[in-house]
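Researcher: Structure for this, please.
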Amino acid sequence: MDVLDLARAQFAVTGSLHFLFVVLTLGMAPLVAIMQTRHAITGKPVFERMTRFWGQIYVINYALGVLTGLVMEFQFGLSWSGLSHYAGDVFGAPLAIETLVAFFLESTFLALWIFGWHRLPRWLHLACIWLVAITAYASAFWIMVANSFLQNPAGAEVRGGRLALTDPGALLSNPSFVFAFPHVIGAGLLTGGLVVASASAYHLMRRHPEYEFFASSLRTGVLCASVGVFVAVGFGFAQFGAIGDMQPGKFAGNPLTGLSLALMLMIGELLLLAIMFFLLPTFWWLPRWRWTHPILMLMAPAPFLAAILGWLAREVGRQPWMINGRLRVEDAMSPGLTPGMIGMSFAAFAGLLLLLAVVDYVLIARTVLSGPAATFLGATAEPGSPDRSSPALTY
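Model: Predicted structure, token format:
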């Protein structure tokens, strides 16, 4: 492989691994907020314990996902300085806003939520997790604004050999963004919902003594996944009209793009059909139907796979352009790079992100397998002590 192919492969691998963290974060944040809202309204201890248990999984994924995001940011300066030079005044603006939102606001509110258990007033603590969810979606908003500019460089013109922003409104109303952002949000809700539903199904299948806890979690997950799949599939198909106008040959000339798109559509439609005709109409009885629990468990990886396939179809279909019609990929690369330099950074980045992904999976799996009794988020006692899982644990 030459230096260009290595750099492209490096970004594809690291981008795919990072997106696995992102899509789960976008799905889990509102789920945890909804669970805590139910506790704040009803006062039922089971909802507080659900918030702590699933919130702990969210925190694990968020913390490790932040590290993968830093790797992604570092690559722009290392391998793609040509992009920054040519379009940094436009492309860099939404990324800078996203960084401020993600690392200052979202992280601040998440820290207040983590350490505010049993310290902050009930409604203030609840507001913190909703602000976490809102700022997480705001981060996704600005990332998709930047990515959509690469797909369709709206609101900018060339001045002095560089792109300059001339119309912020056009940047924010980019047709590539308008349909893609809700599609990503739907994919996140589908992913978070199925993860919660499948983990709950595992414990219900094994006849966990805390039936109410996992029955309620399973129903909540199925409802969230139902909303997500309808949004994701609906806005996914809605994109084709805009793509046909902006990138008419996107899915025609690259075999990987067509295959990724076909597989994503197949997974999305199968999930839509399964949820629409079976899971959603019967969601109330699913906790008692043990024969459905292995099916729910097998469905958990599907949205992750669909998310990666969708990302590949969107990005690979833009080639050979870094900015569609304006800047080619080879012109966006940093000068002076050699195959050895990219090969070493590829191995380092991919190895680091793969390690983080494995750690994330292991920690989440251990948390799920240990069950709510071992939850330490918001606990007032030592791990394993009887009152950690006591229904008396309230604000």
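Researcher: Any notable elements?
Model: The chain has one domain: 25-157+168-370. The chain has twelve helices and four strands.
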